Amino acid sequence: MMYGELYQYFIQHKQLNVPGIGTFLLERKPAVADFPNRIINAPTYSIALQPSQASPSKNFFSWLSETYRISERDAVIRFNDFVFDMKQQLSRGQTIAWEGVGKLSTGLGGEIKFDPALDGVALESPVKAEKVIREKSEHTVRVGEEERTAAQMIELLNQPVYKKKYWWAWALVIALLVTMFLGWYFSVYGLKSTSAGNTQKVKTEEPGTTYKTPS
Question: What pTM was computed for the model?
Answer without folding.
Answer: 0.58
